[in-house]
């Protein structure tokens, strides 16, 4: 299987691997966080829960985060309400791009 086009776009050089490394099919997804202007790539099975992706992305992109509940994951501009859903159940596909944002707007100073 060839890598999706989104895997070729600018991101950190390392790819974070989630889930067991057995023979199950894997998807390449991206998580972008506009507040820090950074992107990470993930290799994960479609059965991986979204919360695992969110927590690992926060560790990489925003290590100062105290509570992961202060952030939301968006797919195609829509907040994914059930973070315990699998990647496949969220409507994602191989090459999808998730947006990681603060749950509430932050004041600009």
Question: Which features would summarize this protein structure in a list?
Answer:
Ubiquitin-like (UB roll); alpha/beta
Give an overview of the whole structure:
This protein has 109 residues and is α/β, with parallel strands linked by helices. Helix content is 11%, strand content 28%. A six-stranded mixed sheet has the order 1-3-2-6-4-5, covered by helices on one side. A hairpin with a 2-residue loop joins strand 4 and strand 5. The model has no long low-confidence stretch (mean pLDDT 85).
Structure described in brief:
The chain is α/β, with parallel strands linked by helices.
Question: What's the SSE blueprint?
Answer:
Layout: E1 15-17, E2 27-33, E3 38-44, H1 50-61, E4 71-75, E5 78-79, E6 97-102
Parallel strand pairs: 1-3, 2-6
Antiparallel strand pairs: 2-3, 4-5, 4-6
């Amino acid at each position: 299987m060839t890598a999706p086009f989104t895997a070729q776009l600018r991101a950190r050089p390392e790819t974070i691997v989630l889930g067991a490394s057995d023979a199950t099919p894997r998807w390449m997804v991206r998580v972008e966080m506009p507040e820090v202007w950074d992107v990470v790539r993930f290799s994960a099975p479609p059965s991986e829960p979204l919360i695992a992706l969110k927590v690992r992305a926060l560790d990489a992109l925003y290590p100062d985060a105290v509570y992961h509940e202060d952030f939301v994951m968006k797919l195609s501009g829509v907040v994914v309400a059930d973070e315990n859903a699998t990647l496949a159940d969220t409507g994602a596909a191989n090459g999808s791009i998730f947006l990681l944002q603060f749950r509430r707007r932050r004041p600009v100073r």
